[in-house]
Amino acid sequence: MAGRGQLIVAPEGQIFFVIDEGSVFGTRAVIPHGPGVHELAKMAVAPEVRGRGYGDLLMEAAVEFSRRAGASRMVIVSNTRLAPAISLYRKHGFVEVPLESNQRYERADIQMERELGAGGVLGEATLFIPGAAWDLAPGAVRTIPEQGPSLRPG
Q1: How far is Cα 99 from Cα 18, in angstroms, rounded to an integer?
Q2: Chain centroid to CA 110: how far?
Q3: How far apart, in Å, do the first and last CA atoms of the chain sit?
Q4: Distances (CA, A) of 113 to 16, 38, 132
């Protein structure tokens, strides 16, 4: 992987993809930022599949990945014009905190955080999400029974 993807994955980050019938319909990145802090970044779900739960699936996968990697806190920097995304973040336990002045995102006007509970050791493990299962081992793919797509850590 090269370019921006390498900047995310090389420092122990992860990029997740929702793949259905061979097409990528969603993505989410997790970027480590110092000891115990992970940033959620670069989330997108294709407009034609919104409402199918792919955003929830990506959020749950990112949170579980961070917990297992030993992060104690997750941070999201966004823009309030992205109301559906802000609603999704709140649904998954993120709360608004003061926006740090040293943000590298020019359009950011909101910062949200979530404290994580005790984590495990990242490695070969299966994550169970209601109605879904996927493997955290790099390159592994499993089908999500109720929805049909697979979630692939990249």
Answers
A1: 30
A2: 18
A3: 9
A4: 20, 10, 25
Amino acid identity of residue 108, one-letter, is: A
Angle ∠(56,33,86) on CA atoms, nearest 5: 30
> What single letter denotes the amino acid at residue 67?
R
Q: What CA–CA distance (Å, rounded) separates 35 from 16?
A: 22
The string of pLDDT tens digits covering residues 84-111 is 999 999 999 999 999 887 667 778 889 9
Decide: 25 and 46 in contact? Cβ < 8 Å.
yes
**Closest by CA position to 68, among listed 121, 11, 133:** 121
Q: pTM, whole model, 2 decimals? A: 0.71
